[in-house]
Amino acid sequence: MFRYRVHLEDGSDAGEATYAQMIHLGDEIHLVAGQRFRGVDVVEFDEEDEWPLIGLLQVEATSS
After folding, report:
1. Phi/psi zone of residue 8: left (φ > 0), alpha (ψ -120 to 50 degrees), beta?
2. How far is CA 1 from the centre of its chain?
């Protein structure tokens, strides 16, 4: 499982999200209440880091 800290384009914190696969730029994801977002920036942490998170994910809303 891949766990990310998610931020919106305006810098606001959208919490954490866990996915079965790694998220890449342009991938569409779903957050709360079925809202759809697209990954616009991904910062992955080094494997040596012992954080419970794999990285930071910045997203933008997509049209429905």
Report:
1. beta
2. 13
Q: Is 28 exposed, middle or buried (0-12, 13-18, 19+ CB in 10 A)?
A: exposed
Q: Is 1 helix (H, G, I), strand (E, B) or coil?
A: coil
d(CA 9, CA 47): 26
Contact between residue 5 and residue 20 where contact means Cβ atoms under 8 Å apart: no
> What pTM does this model have?
0.78
At residue 59's C-alpha, the angle toward residues 13 and 51, to 5°, is 60
pLDDT in tens, 41-63: 988 887 666 678 888 999 998 87
Give the C-alpha separation, 49 to 63, whole Å.
35
